[in-house]
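Continuing the batch. This is chain 6 of the set; chains 1 through 5 are on the previous pages. Same settings as before, nothing changed between runs. Recording input and output for traceability.
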Amino acid sequence: MIDEIDRVSRRPLNVRSVLRQRCAECGRGRIFRGPLAMNVVCPDCGCRFERGPGYFTGAMYFSYALGIPLIAVGVLVGKLLAPSWSLVGLLAAAWVAFLPLAPATFRYSRVLFIHLDRWLDPEGSGD
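Output for chain 6:
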């Protein structure tokens, strides 16, 4: 148990690699090869990004964590700019304004999930 904690604590999350959407192992290889197309493995170190079937289901939580606050801020800004609008109208406008950000949210949710998973479970044991 102590060895496991020491191993994890020696390798901090690399924020720069997350922001640049790079591999969690080497920090150099691109995770995405196109706007929405992922590399199967890191082009630099060969790290396999998807550890198993349904692996990126956990990335949905990151997607919600990124998307909901953006939509909420849009509603708040809309309320300040157009106080006469109904809440439903503001929510619809914020949602439509968020749509162009959906691909970036998708990408960063997967990148964040990969990095967090590799940080918490570097060996991929699933325990």
